[in-house]
Amino acid sequence: MKKILKIEGMHCSHCQARVEKALNAIPGVTARVDLKKAQATVKLSQDVSDSQLKDAVDEAGYTVTGIEAARGLFG
Fold first, then answer.
1. C-alpha to C-alpha distance for 27 and 46, rounded to whole angstroms
2. What residues pair up with 1 in beta bridges, in sequence order?
């Protein structure tokens, strides 16, 4: 499954890296953050709740404004 997280508060590549690191630390998650689009594309290889994803971003210091399921290939 793939999800798109809309994220507020990212301003630079350091912010981008911090969010990617937080999301990728969750078992079963592979994440890529697009700073310009202010979103993360998350590929899940196991069940991970939206609240787990949101909490990881919150703990990194940023705000998830929306989560949606996505279709298609990762990458």
1. 8
2. none
Place of tokens 């705000």: 63
For residue range 10-58, list pLDDT tens digits in order: 999 999 999 999 999 999 999 999 999 999 999 999 999 999 999 999 9
- Name the residue with tokens 């981008």: 16
Determine phi and psi for 28, rounding to 5 degrees.
Answer: 90, 5
Q: Tokens standing for 57?
A: 């971003």
Tell me the domains of the chain and their CATH numbers.
Answer: 2-70 (3.30.70.100)
In sign, the C-alpha dihedral spanning 21, 23, 26, 24 is negative
pTM for the full predicted model: 0.91
* Neighbour-count burial of 18, counting CB atoms closer than 10 A to its CB (0-12 exposed, 13-18 middle, 19+ buried): middle
**Other CB atoms within 10 A of residue 6 CB:** 14
